[in-house]
Amino acid sequence: MKLTLAIAVSLLATSVHGVADHLWYRYSLPNITDWYNEIKVHPDMEPTSTYFMSNGFGNGYFGIQPNAPNKTVLFSIWDADDGTKVTNQYCGPKSICSTFGGEGTGLHVNYNFNWTAGVTYAGLIKTKSVVPGYTDFSGYFMHENKEWYHMATYRRKQPTPWLTGLYSFVENPSSVTINITRRTNFGNQWVRNATGHSEELTVAGLDHTSPLVASDRYGAGVDKTSFYLFINGPSNDIPKNTTLVRQATHQEPDWSMQGKTGGKTTKKSTKKTGHKTTKKSKKTTIKKSSKAGHESHRKSTIRSSHHSKVVKKSHKKHEEPAQHHSDKHHPGKHPQKKHEKPAKHH
Ligand SMILES: *[C@@H]1O[C@H](CO)[C@@H](O)[C@H](O)[C@H]1NC(C)=O
Ligand SMILES: *[C@@H]1O[C@H](CO)[C@@H](O)[C@H](O)[C@H]1NC(C)=O
Ligand SMILES: *[C@@H]1O[C@H](CO)[C@@H](O)[C@H](O)[C@H]1NC(C)=O
Ligand SMILES: *[C@@H]1O[C@H](CO)[C@@H](O)[C@H](O)[C@H]1NC(C)=O
Ligand SMILES: *[C@@H]1O[C@H](CO)[C@@H](O)[C@H](O)[C@H]1NC(C)=O
Ligand SMILES: *[C@@H]1O[C@H](CO)[C@@H](O)[C@H](O)[C@H]1NC(C)=O
């Protein structure tokens, strides 16, 4: 009995701790190449190592973490299904770019920016097919003064550059501070395609990792033009109807990322960094409306509810964010794959 418990605890320590909740965005725009989301973490609900993941998609994700000693912005791309490695095309001057391993492998970048809870930032993912058969994924972070920072561009073996399975989540990869509430808002989501058509994403389906245990308390809902998500709450706040609809802003983001030139530099965002202007690529496209199903991995058991449609090709494993006590990254949940074994800590 004692031994069983010890094993269970050790499995627990290798994975996501407690429930994580996810928002799966609905959209009808075909062939998405640009994916924008705003994030505002709730003050005092940002314990170390939480991953507030704003811009998730089939082959990677982007978000912010209150790691110690530094807060960071993280952008990751998984290696191709056939094992072909992601290659680095650009690593911003303030970025730390490296590989990650475990069950999922790929490249990721940390930008150690001391973000502040209660302030709205944004993430933008842009894709482009530069070399036939490959897709370049660029991750950009928008500071509070609208100045953009180009974190990195990674090239992945993937014939079409469309972003699918768009989602956000909050999760706790650390066994420390397991019962401190983590809460954030994700708002004003927009997508755009290569011919410049855009769509505001106002509808999202709520999902959570499962099974739940008695101590799991999470919630989600709508705050005007944003969605909120929390985990490890003092109590549950689970909407009856898990299809959430936020108010539209009708305010498209600054796709060209020109805010950098007009923005005032604050002490927190003094970098003048590589940035890019948007270019329109003339891709032709494939229709692939998507609403990816996914499965998440939690504790040693896995199972997640799933909305979902077909997902043709499996995508990469999700890497979990770094722990405050370790620099290792591990695969964690994953939107479109059946099931992963618990990640290992080293
Ligand atoms: C980040 O900012 C907070 C609040 O201003 C400050 O207390 C903290 O020391 C800063 N952290 C780093 C690593 O600079
Ligand atoms: C944390 O930030 C400081 C100041 O920018 C930097 O010198 C240090 O290397 C960073 N630590 C880690 C682990 O990234
Ligand atoms: C947090 O979790 C620890 C370990 O399970 C427990 O001892 C403690 O009472 C919990 N604190 C709260 C506020 O629930
Ligand atoms: C972008 O979306 C519009 C509107 O749905 C569509 O007509 C157009 O074909 C799409 N562009 C591409 C490149 O797929
Ligand atoms: C849930 O909300 C969505 C969006 O408002 C709506 O279309 C749907 O009918 C609702 N479902 C139920 C069972 O109320
Ligand atoms: C999406 O792109 C493919 C080419 O990759 C194209 O055949 C298809 O028509 C595009 N879809 C739309 C709706 O434009």
Automatic annotation (TrEMBL):
User: Does the record carry Zinc-finger as a key word?
Assistant: no
- Native species: Mortierella isabellina
Q: Which InterPro entries match?
A: DUF3472
Q: Which domain of life is it from?
A: Eukaryota
Q: Which UniProt keywords apply?
A: Signal
Task: Give the residue range of the signal peptide.
Answer: 1-18
| Annotated segments matching region Disordered | 250-346
Q: Which Pfam families did the record assign?
A: DUF3472 (PF11958)
* Keyword check for Signal: yes
What is the protein name for this chain? Answer: DUF5077 domain-containing protein
**Where is the sequence biased in composition, kind Basic residues?**
265-316, 326-346
